[in-house]
Amino acid sequence: MLTDTHTHLNASQFDDDREEVIERARQQGVSRIINIGFNRETIPTSIELTERFDFIYSAVGWHPQDAIDMRADDLDWIEELCKKEKVVAIGEIGLDYYWDTSPKDVQHRVFREQIRLARRIGMPIAIHNREAHQDIVQLLREEKAEDVGGVMHCYSGSWETAKLCLDMNFYISFGGPITFKNARQPKEVLTQVPLDRLLIETDAPYLTPHPHRGKRNETGYVRLVAEAAAELKGVTLEEIAAITSDNATRLFGMPAL
């Protein structure tokens, strides 16, 4: 009953064996997948996956690294795609101060526009946040993002910031880093996040969990994330799978497993 709430199966890293990767995920107990389309190239291929596989859903949005390339008609396109039954969120959107590919003011504008779109159509949002914790919280507050809520994807911040996000109707999602021996902060934050606001993900092909670290990540490895989360929370793998899948059902408005 595992749900991978954030993956990139349409990435070029899977071009040679995509169907095999998806089958391996199914064999690991992955019942549902949310694939992310985040720019002009990846949005169409993410939608294609939802049309080929009944257990794959999609989020569509504009990544902050690509913010400088976003046009007004792209926002209209995202709004139109959100009418599709299997598009369940706007994302991944947010701020990225690590990669110097889009100016901060452009990132802010594109982020605000997509939050406003989400509020207008009643769609949750999936947040990308890299080295921008304070500004993410500020913009979410200013744009009243609590009206729709969403998920803090692959959370890497402090518990203090996580509490602010929880107060704004957000779920906190964890990926491969919680399996790393030296990842003290995400493990500590996970132990404090309420079970009913917890999600798991892979972000495949990135952030591969132990013991496969250094290799390509796969959606099936969400089981390793679930195992680590279960141990940190003191519950069984079956319980963490059911709880996080139920949380995904509630947040994204998907049919229950």
UniProtKB/TrEMBL annotation:
Signal peptide range in chain numbering: none
SUPFAM superfamilies listed in its UniProt record: Metallo-dependent hydrolases
Pfam families, per database record: TatD_DNase (PF01026)
Coiled coil feature spans: none
Enzyme class: hydrolase
This protein's UniProt keywords: Hydrolase, Metal-binding
GO MF annotation terms: hydrolase activity
Domain of life: Bacteria
EC number: 3.1.-.-
Entry keyword Metal-binding: yes
NCBIfam families noted in UniProt: YchF/TatD family DNA exonuclease (TIGR00010)
Listed name of the protein: TatD family hydrolase
